[in-house]
Design a protein that fits this description.
This protein is of the alpha/beta class. It has 23 helices and 13 strands. α6 runs parallel beside α10, α8 packs antiparallel against α9 and α12 packs across α13. The protein is globular and about 70 Å long.
Length: about 550
């Protein structure tokens, strides 16, 4: 009893203090509630009432205080279907890369059985509405549109209103681009001879544009062709087989279906849409130029020897402009006008070199400024047609070519503008010109790659590249190499967030990326290619005289 009395006696001050504290807290709370009721804002729970919003300065101070010295990362803790460095969607990597790639997973990571029917153009759905959905990369803009323009309603809610609006705006912006006024024919009088110049407007990823470009070359039978490429892009478009490009894209999309980046479902489905769009732009873009060159190889030489002009601005210049002023700068009028002037310079140079029919395959965004530059140089627009007119045979490309050759209006003008002065001949390069021997050499290299390259030689897994934050602050804008970088094999062409690469061995054989200069040097050393600012040098080289071999 004495012991218990001692415990109570010792605890009595604590009990009294607790009671006093509770009483004061209740009194304060009653005051707060009374003050809130007086303002009509009674609080249902125990929290200090806030009677005004935070100011902008308070929000900024709170943001800085809550994020300083902390590393924020997205919640990449989703379920991954396979181990790192393994693509379980592809069973056989020993097969030739040129063979069609069959994936064992659908777009959401479900296993494809033997009798399952896979459709690549079904509207996107996570519940297999209409059948299982192919995880392979879309081969054209039409296929991408079939997947995502009219998605299942449940999938639209998963992507969210902002993502859905961005998708719809992208499709709306592309409507009609590959159809309206895409074929334009000019008559041009140069060096006492009349030439027919034809422009074919294409979009980078449209299957319809690829068919139009190939059909236009087949019907017009030009002796000179200009495409919107440069010598730095020869390997990627004229050497790398299109089957390899499709295999790389589908391999990457099949790997993404296993969720290697451990994304949560909400982010995973949005990344599916973005990933398909990026794969289409990166790997299947520009195939209209490849289709035109392939068809041009089948054209018989008549009169002047066949000549291909790569008339675009160098890719390195475009990349520099993009880094300095952003992606939008390439769509602004100064950049479009400069690129159009460069293309017009190459097209007029082909006409001045003695070609009666010259065709240019360019992006539709450059058709209007390119038309302006050609008219300033003295060309006369004689015919315009839509893609739908050509497809329905309402217009004939062969007849339009004859209109350009027989037009009398271009000859009647006494004061013809000086095309060389308008376009800057002698002050800027005319373009990159390839003879038929160069095209045959590139075709042999492409066939060799198609015949011997296996899938594992084309695509290789690698560990994610570490992001050295401190070194990046010291080194500036360029990507720092990191510790022991010189001891490792230099990376090839990285994609899929640095998890996949095309090895350097393949890039060297194809003449891509950093090896493009070596490919160009070999072509120029064999006198099969030329890049010049002087029209007389081009004419001498193109004449195929014995002296031209020493240029």
């Amino acid at each position: 009893s004495r012991q218990h009395f001692g415990i109570v006696r010792l605890a009595r001050p604590l009990i009294v203090a607790a009671c006093v504290g509770c009483a004061s807290w209740l009194a304060g709370f009653q005051d707060v509630v009374a003050f809130g009721k007086a303002r009509g804002k009674a609080r249902p729970k125990l929290e200090w009432p806030l009677f005004r919003p935070y100011t902008a300065k308070e929000k900024e101070l709170w943001r800085k205080g809550s994020t300083s010295m902390l590393k924020h990362k997205l919640p990449y803790d989703g379920m991954q279907l396979g181990p790192d460095g393994v693509n379980i969607a592809v069973k056989d990597v020993e097969r030739l890369a040129a063979e069609p790639l069959q994936l064992s997973l659908d777009r959401t990571g479900k296993t494809i059985k033997e009798n399952d029917i896979i459709v690549s153009e079904l509207p996107f759905s996570s519940d297999d509405v209409g059948g299982m959905h192919s995880a392979s990369a879309p081969s054209s803009w039409e296929e991408l549109e079939a997947r995502y323009r009219n998605m299942e309603k449940r999938m639209e809610t998963r992507i969210g209103p902002k993502g859905l609006q961005a998708v719809q705006l992208a499709f709306a912006a592309a409507d009609g681009q590959d159809d309206f006024r895409t074929v334009r024919t000019f008559s041009f009088f140069v060096n006492g001879r009349q030439t027919s110049l034809m422009l074919i407007g294409v979009t980078e990823t449209s299957a319809r544009s690829r068919k139009l470009a190939a059909r236009a070359v087949y019907e017009a039978q030009p002796s000179a062709l200009l495409v919107q490429l440069c010598r730095e892009r020869i390997g990627g478009h004229l050497v790398m087989p299109k089957e390899h490009r499709a295999a790389v894209a589908s391999y990457a999309r099949g790997y993404a279906a296993t969720n290697p980046h451990k994304m949560r479902p909400s982010l995973f489905y949005s990344d599916m849409v973005n990933g398909d769009f990026e794969a289409l732009q990166r790997w299947m873009g520009g195939l209209a130029y490849t289709a035109a060159v392939d068809e041009f190889m089948e054209v018989r030489s008549r009169g002047a020897p066949k000549m291909l002009c790569l008339g675009d601005v160098l890719q390195s210049r475009l990349d520099m402009l993009r880094r300095q002023d952003g992606n939008q700068s390439l769509q602004e009028m100064p950049a479009l006008s400069a690129r159009s002037k460069q293309l017009a310079r190459g097209l007029v140079a082909l006409a001045a070199a003695g070609h009666n029919v010259a065709m240019g395959v360019v992006n539709v965004d450059l058709l209007d400024p390119l038309t302006t530059w050609l008219e300033r140089a003295g060309a006369r627009l004689v015919a315009v047609a839509d893609t739908s007119d050509i497809e329905a045979n309402r217009e004939s490309i062969a007849n339009d070519v004859q209109m350009g050759l027989n037009d009398e209006g271009v000859r009647r003008g006494d004061l013809q503008p000086n095309a060389a002065e308008v376009l800057g001949f002698g002050r800027a390069r005319l373009g990159t010109f390839l003879r038929e021997e160069a095209l045959l050499s590139l075709e042999r290299r492409r066939e060799q790659l198609r015949a011997v390259t296996r899938l594992k030689d084309l695509v290789r897994h690698r560990e994610a590249t570490p992001d050295w934050k401190v070194a990046q602050l010291i080194g500036g804008d360029s990507q720092p190499p990191g510790p022991e970088a010189l001891l490792k094999e230099p990376p090839g062409l990285l994609f899929e967030l640095g998890r996949l690469e095309i090895p350097n061995d393949y890039l060297r054989q194809a003449g891509m990326e950093g090896h493009s200069s070596r490919l160009w040097t070999s072509l120029r050393g064999n006198n099969a290619a030329l890049e010049t600012q002087d029209m007389s040098e081009l004419s001498w080289w193109a004449s195929d005289s014995p002296g031209a071999r020493d240029v």
